[in-house]
Amino acid sequence: MTIHLRLQQLIDSLGISVLEFARQLGEHRGEKVYHILHGRLKPRYDTLEKILVAYPQVNGDWLLRGEGLMFKVLSSPSAAITTEERLRNMEFLLFQLNERVALLQQTNDQLLAEMKKSGLVK
Asked: Torsion angle of alpha carbons 41, 43, 44, 47, nearest 10°?
């Protein structure tokens, strides 16, 4: 999943508009964020840093590389993520698993077709 798709997913999970997200990053208008979301721009380091400062609950590994959960699991009660955020994390993980299963099924179907074509399987 590309970073612009992860950003869109983050905005959706936060339940805010793109404009509100941009304002939280210190942008008066949402143009830069819109361009990033549509793949016309890649986020610069300072933009990514602003996201992680504005939303400290966001997992930097997930934001940068798509690894792990969207939100950090924190041990401090005052900084703990909400049940709603945990549910969003679970929904995202299920979405990723479904994508992987579909890809595996497609690969399996292609291999089976090739095996039938070559006479290895009837």
From this structure: 130
Integer-rounded Cα Rg, in Å, for the chain is 19
The CATH number for 109's domain is 1.10.260
Counting every residue written for the chain, the total comes to: 122
For the full predicted model, state whether its pTM sits above 0.70.
no
Indicate the Cα dihedral angle 13, 14, 20, 22, nearest 10°: -70
Q: Determine the residue type at 30.
A: G
Q: How is residue 94 written in tokens?
A: 């299920």
User: 37 lies in which domain range?
Assistant: 3-117
Residue 71 contacts residue 59 (beta carbons within 8 Å): yes
| Tokens 């992680």 belong to residue | 52
Structural domains in the chain (count): 1
Three-point CA angle 43, 46, 48, nearest 5°:
55
Run means of pLDDT, 10 residues per run, the chain, 122 residues: 91 91 90 92 93 92 91 62 74 82 90 89 77
